[in-house]
Amino acid sequence: MKTVVLIPTEDEAAPIRAARPFADVRVCGVGMAAAGAFTASLLVGERPDRILLCGIAGAYDPALRPGQVVVVGVERVAGLPGKYADRYEGTPLPAWLPAVVSNTVSRSGAEADGAAVENMEGAAVMAVCHALGVACSEIRAVSNRVGDPFDRWQIPEALDSLVAALVRLAEEHRP
What is the third-level CATH fold of 3-172? Predict the structure, then answer.
């Protein structure tokens, strides 16, 4: 099974590439437009079996702490009117990763509306994968509370936790 790991930035990708839990790690870009366009091009051109979207996230849920890793069970675009508010379900991952609902936002600070975390790429990547029939899972490591100023984000700690989770996931799924 060919799995491609997508991550929004090179800074996030570097520690994953160094740890080598998965062979194919690619930068998809930040935000819905960049990540969606990259994913569509990848799926049409190469047709991998599975996409594993990874990255950092802001937490709405006060129980989620920086460095905690979650799997996004449901992804949605924040702020769309109800009749247009599609929900995208991710392909399940092991139970040791708690599942959450995530909002995909164009800027930090959207209303939580029942979501535990927010990110900027998830719904776009999942929408493209669903449309083209490719399995998609999403793992996020909490780097901050939603609304925290950027200088308070704990990105290195979040990335360390994300890499550890990916290493464990890869070890459990090696043939």
Answer: Rossmann fold (3.40.50)
